[in-house]
Every structure is written in structure tokens, then in C-alpha cells.
Amino acid sequence: MECKYLNFHGLLLPRIAHSEESIKYFENFQVNDDDVFAITYPKSGTTWMQEILPLILNGGDFTPVKTIPNWDRVPWLEETRAALVMDKMTPPRLMVSHMPYEFMPPSFFSSKAKAIYVARNPKDVLVSSFFFHQMATFLDDPGTFDEFVDTFLAGQVLFGKWTDHVKSWRKADLGDRILYVTYEEMVKDLKGVVRRFSDFLGQKMSEETLEQVVSHCSFNTMKTNAMSNYSLVPQEVMDTKKSTFLRKGISGDWKNHFSPEQEEKFTAAIREELRGSNIPFPWDE
Ligand code: A3P
């Protein structure tokens, strides 16, 4: 049986969305100064960013988020669809990427393009990923939750180890070209975060538009937006009887799934790997 993943420098990328050509396209991509990237480890709020960013950058025009699927609206630069849609995009081009910092295209480093890095509590990332592996037929079955804790800690998951990803982007030498935010901050205060994004991107937004954006980007509204809830994907590819893409949209769901032993082991391993880095571990509660 063909392996479901492509191996890129030790990172697992699902073949359904990546190819040797798409990786070449990514590596040779010419980044423009006004490009904007949202960078995430998988299951950390990518789809959410694909909803928020277009609304900020086009002054609250809701047409794109209601008419264009998220993967074409704000494409993944490393995925096969990027080559198909990127040329048609008008500046500022918005894109997402799951790539670690060191693998970004050379032109990214020499450009003035901005990046927003969204990190999420790794325990909730693991839970979200566990259910995603159950419903996405293009990924390996996750096994039991206990087995998946080990798979996750070993980095045998999409785009490698969570700790490597956050460490690589934390030490990014981008000055004021990068903004760090957490999924948990977005859950707690989406309005404040959207305001931070618009300030960072130099976009003025009226209070009224801000309110509309926040309301449109709520979990419940996004769940009903066919352009963002993955309902366009055939059932054979994403089995919604097993789980949904926009599943719970909360912080702390890990408490419903980790045993005390799993939690202890997981936290110890993550803390050990983050030791010596300047990354806080703001997810203790
Ligand atoms: P859960 O599985 O915990 O619900 P990504 O887009 O990076 O794959 O991340 C998917 C996760 O982000 C899912 O988490 C999904 O529900 C959550 N998400 C997407 N849109 C959201 C929103 N508007 N509010 C809260 N969470 C959201």
C-alpha cells in the first residue's frame, strides 16, 4: 500500500495535498514585500486565520469568505493548489504555511513580508489532531489515544514535532515583521486579537466593521459557512460521521481526554524539549 505521506527533510506531509512539484514551487516562490503569512502548526487555528485575514485586509468585504473555499482564498504555500491560485491573487497576497522557519523560501527572508505565528496548547493540538486523523481518510489511523500520545511526542505526525515547530518560529529573526499570538488568546478575546492584527498589518478598521468581523469569525458562524467548514470535501475524504473539521473550537478540551498519567508524561516531555528556549509554557491551567 502506498504511504500516505511525502517525507520532506523528515517532516510528514500528506500526499493528498503535497507533491514534489508543490514543494519545489514553495522553495522557489518569490515573496513580495506586501505578502502576509499566517504560520501555524497543524490544528492550531489555520482555518480561523483564513477567515480573519481577508476580512481585515479588504476592509470588511465579506464576498471572498462567502464565495471562495478557504484553501483557495488563503492558500497553503506548500500545497499543490498554491500554484493554481497564487498567480490570480491581487496584492496583498495572503497565504498560510505549516513549514518550520528554516524551510521558508529564501526570498521570504530578504523580503519585508509580514508573518503572524499562531501557537496553541499542544495538549489541545494533540486532541484536535487525534480526531482529525480519525475522520481524514488520507491520514493514518491514530490508534488508541494512548498510542497517539507517543506518536505525537515522537513527531511522527504532520509537519514533525510540535516543539521543533514553535522553537523554530520563536527564534525567527524577523524583528517587527512577525507577530506572535496564541489560539487561547483568540478564544478569550477575539476582538482584541483582531484589533492587534489590523494594527500589525497597518489596516484601519471601524468599530462597526470590527464587530462584524468578530461575529462572522465566531466558531458557530464559521461552522455554518460552507466555504470554511470543509463540507465541500467529499465524505470519502473526510468522514463527518467520525468527527467534524470544526469540531469543538474551545481551549482545554484535553482535560476530557488525557489521563493524569498521560498528562504528566506529556507535560514533562514538552517542558524538557522547551528547556533553554525563550518559550513560555502559558498553558498550565
Ligand atoms: P478543535 O478540533 O479543537 O475543535 P486548523 O484549522 O489549524 O486545522 O485547526 C483546527 C482547529 O481550530 C479545530 O479545533 C477547529 O475547531 C478550530 N477552529 C477553527 N475555527 C475556529 C473558530 N472560529 N473558533 C474557535 N476554534 C476554531
Describe this structure in words.
By secondary structure, the protein is an alpha/beta fold. It has one domain (5-274): P-loop containing nucleotide triphosphate hydrolases (Rossmann fold, 3-Layer(aba) Sandwich). The protein is 42% helix and 10% strand. It has helices at residues 20-28, 46-57, 63-67, 70-73, 80-85, 106-110, 122-135, 145-153, 162-170, 183-188, 190-200, 207-216, 219-224, 260-274, and strands at 5-8, 11-14, 36-40, 94-97, 114-119, 178-182. The strands form two sheets. The protein has a four-stranded parallel β-sheet, with helices on both faces. A two-stranded antiparallel ribbon has the order 1-2. The model has no long low-confidence stretch (mean pLDDT 95). Bound molecules: adenosine-3'-5'-diphosphate (A3P).
Number of domains: 1
Cofactors and ligands present? Answer: adenosine-3'-5'-diphosphate
Class of secondary structure makeup: alpha/beta
- Count of discrete alpha- or pi-helical segments spanning 4 or more residues: 14
Q: What is the CATH superfamily classification?
A: P-loop containing nucleotide triphosphate hydrolases
Taking all residues together, what is the mean pLDDT?
Answer: 95
Rg, rounded, reads 18 Å
Shape: globular
Oligomerization status of the protein chains: single chain
| First-residue to last-residue Cα separation | 43 Å
Name the CATH class.
Answer: Alpha Beta
SSE pattern: EEHEHHHHEHEHHHEHHHHH
CATH topology: Rossmann fold
Poorly predicted regions are: none
Helicity level, as a percent range?
40-55%
Strand order of the largest sheet: 4-3-5-6
| CATH architectural name | 3-Layer(aba) Sandwich
What is the percentage of strand-forming residues? Answer: 5-15%
Largest sheet, in brief, is: 4 strands, parallel
Count of beta strands = 6
